[in-house]
Specification:
Elements lengths: L2 E3 L2 E3 L12 H52 L23 H9 L2 E6 L5 E7 L10 E3 L7 E3 L8 E4 L34 H4 L10 E5 L15 E2 L6
Antiparallel strand pairs: 1-2, 3-4, 5-6, 7-8, 8-9
Length: 237
């Protein structure tokens, strides 16, 4: 059978659709799609990491405002539970570092005065200074009052009250300064303040005040790096 169109003759074989992709073209197209998706994933990862870092920087800045308000009311910075002043919950859970800071900022404060006879009298009760979202706090299962401020990666912050200078410097090179630390799950690098090449000065970085820091995006992992630190002092990365 033939079809006549005008003066020409079109045979059935000529009516078949000859358009389409060859195997090579398909492979090239798939490769381009995979490449573009991988680049998009890398870009999204960097964006999320930068966003988390900025959020943690803002969080630390906010906490510093809370700490300054605390000092203006009580005359000293919040205790860190590491300098001979124990910080515990009502159930007796010991708190150190960031957990001690959480306790100071999230609980009412008693404003006291010392009378001439040495008696300490409570003058007023100050409402809690700090306000934190639920995703900024870690709570232990055993004690609901044992809280610890965590950064954007859900890793605990460090806090060291160094108001009294070198004698109040408390290196935090071990995970025991955190609540519910498990050496089988987490890793912990040495406190950068003990390494002169990184911190510049061995010891307190904000002498007479306090040091506060996050381990950053690689915190408490096997590939943790000091370059990821976010702190209230300048690191030599």
């Amino acid at each position: 059978m033939t079809l006549e169109i005008g003066k020409g003759v079109v045979r059935p074989a000529q009516l078949q659709n000859t358009s389409g992709f060859t195997m090579v073209e398909l492979l090239v197209t798939i490769s381009l799609i995979v490449f573009l998706m991988s680049m998009l994933a890398v870009g999204a990862g960097r964006y999320l990491e930068n966003t988390s870092a900025k959020a943690t920087e803002a969080q630390i800045a906010r906490i510093q405002l809370y700490i300054q308000e605390y000092k203006s009311l009580l005359g000293s910075y919040p205790p860190d539970g590491l300098d001979g002043i124990d910080v515990t919950t009502e159930e007796g859970t010991p708190l150190t570092g960031g957990a001690a800071l959480s306790h100071a900022l999230l609980n009412p404060m008693l404003l006291t005065t010392r009378l001439p006879n040495g008696e300490i009298r409570v003058m007023a009760e100050q409402p809690p200074i700090g306000e934190f979202r639920s995703d900024e706090l870690y709570v232990t299962e055993e004690d609901s009052e044992a809280l610890e401020i965590v950064d954007s990666w859900r890793n605990p912050l460090h806090y060291d009250n160094v108001q009294k200078g070198d004698e109040s410097f408390s290196p935090q090179s071990f995970g025991e300064t955190h609540l519910d630390w498990d050496d089988d799950i987490f890793t912990h690098i040495e406190d950068s303040r003990e390494i002169e090449e990184i911190s510049g000065v061995v010891g307190p970085q904000n002498l007479g005040e306090y040091d506060i820091w996050s381990h950053g995006s690689s915190g408490h992992e096997s590939d943790e790096a000091y370059s990821d630190y976010i702190s209230n002092w300048e690191l030599r990365n």
